[in-house]
Amino acid sequence: MSRSGVDAIWLVVGQHNDIEARWVADGLRARADQPVRFVSDATLVHDCRWDLRVGAGGAAARLELGDGTVLDPSTVDGVVNRLCWLGAEAFAGASATDRDYATGELHALGLGWLESLGGRVVNRPAGTGLAGPSRRTAEWRSLARTVRLPIAPFDSDDPPPEVLPLDEEGGVASVLVVDGDVVPADGPDLPPAVRDGLTALRRASGLDLLEAHLVASADGDGAGTGTGDGLALRSVSFLATMSRFGDAGLDALHKALITRRGARR
Amino acid sequence: MIVLAGIPSEPTLDRVADELRALDLPVVWFDQRRAAGSGCTFRLDGDGLHGTLRDGERSVRLEDVAAVYWRLMDDRMLPELKGLPADAPERTRCRALHDAFTTWTSVTPARVVNRAAAMASNGSKPYQAQLIRSVGFDVPETLVTNDPELVRDFVARHGRVIYKSISGVRSIVEEVDDAALARLDDIRWCPVQFQAYVEGVDVRVHVVGRRVFATRIASDAADYRYAATRSGVPARLEATRLSDATEARCVELTARLGLRFSGIDLRITPDERVVCFEANPCPAYSYYEGHTNQPIARAVAHHLAGIAD
Prior knowledge:
The structure holds 2 protein chains of 2 kinds.
Chain A: E1 9-14, H1 19-31, E2 36-40, H2 41-46, E3 48-49, E4 51-55, E5 58-61, E6 63-65, E7 70-71, E8 76-82, H3 96-116, E9 121-122, H4 137-146, E10 154-155, E11 171-178, E12 181-184, H5 192-205, E13 209-216, E14 231-237, H6 246-259
Parallel strand pairs in A: 1-2, 1-8, 8-9
Antiparallel strand pairs in A: 3-6, 4-5, 6-7, 11-12, 11-13, 13-14
Helix pairs in contact in A: 1-6
Chain B: E1 2-6, H1 11-22, E2 27-31, E3 38-45, E4 48-55, E5 58-61, E6 67-71, H2 89-107, E7 111-113, H3 116-119, H4 125-133, E8 142-145, H5 148-158, E9 161-164, E10 174-175, H6 178-182, E11 192-196, E12 201-208, E13 211-218, H7 227-231, E14 236-240, H8 244-256, E15 261-268, E16 274-280, H9 286-292, H10 296-305
Parallel strand pairs in B: 1-2, 1-6, 6-7
Antiparallel strand pairs in B: 3-4, 4-5, 8-11, 9-10, 9-11, 12-13, 12-15, 13-14, 15-16
Helix pairs in contact in B: 1-10
């Protein structure tokens, strides 16, 4: 129960066509003792009264959705953030220039709102992304090296790995990392050093939740550390395919939200 | 080796290039106007980062680069590509080149002024304002809304109110007047940022590492950058000193944002309160240096060279 006397809400925020976000909301609903609400980009752009304030008293937002739901610091105590963009593409009557401007404005507003929610948010926003720091493949692999996680070699002339299915590049494992929990999808067990490396990568990344893709490494030692046991990091997504990890992934996310109850900054 | 990237004739880059020449330091250009003859390729593996930057006939090893100062213009707007269709091979190659270069600046261990990720906070003013607050600066009372009634209440409470873009898109700061109030219903389509007007004197602060250069700006315009065109009276700029505490806070904010070089917009109120509007991660310092003779370019050059601040 929130201070305002109504059940505090957990939000899952994402694009309107984010099937995984809806799956997550359903899964959390089955586990939670409080309402869980999926809020889409379309609702935020077209069906929301915005009131975001920043000043001497700090930052706070009050959003009133079309159905009367109020989202403010007293009614929201957990957020799964999968929001990639807020766009004005549906502003059909506007010129392309005005739509581009409005898209920038909406994105900036979303960033301000999500930041105002502070520590309640799983994957807090960053300047480079509404749902947390966005990195290119080379940046992920570079970051992995700093935490001594073996990496697959990166060549700037290569196509982005995202366009290749895992099995075409010897992909062997997708792994969900949520706070301190490491949840492999179907695949081999992970060596302790790789688990530790993934947890360290998650911490270094500024994300609370990420999905890592590992590949078989020719020498098993992509970072020169001798700890890879034949696995190396290929890519990372902050937008995990949660259904891949089933109940174990939802349980980890549920735990993460519970630990954030009452969080502020 | 120090890499300068962008349009060489741009004053901000040109001045730093001059200072690096004065230090007799080796410089290589990533010259956007010569993109067709340039290349940037690299490999990252267990042994580290290796690659090559090519400018015409000259190539340098990326692992020999100690520092980078970059101010890239949108490669789609380069004059060399003017008139070419969006899918022209020249455009595709140019985009890939810029993408590779930008990615390299994000992963190189060299000193980079500034890394792209660190510059991104400026894309949202209410987001950055929350980071600014976290180092102890006052920020203007701000409302972002699509509800005209909330704006009317805000104006009634604060009296003078300005509005400006929420994003990093440059917009002219305007005061809310009767004409603006008359078209307030337009904000229902897209939220707008309003701020209580802050009385006081503008100070632009350039922070380079730990060095601080403050410029006091005298102007009656709501947005001094447009004072000359709006009122016919240009802003007057002069070097000034801030309190030690404010200087330290500017340095802290720059570091907190992950920047090596910033342009911070302050306003000092009549009661000596210091209000921070924003931190620009890619400051066009030459305008301020040109009016005040503060050695900002030299400080950037020294920072790139690793000469102690």
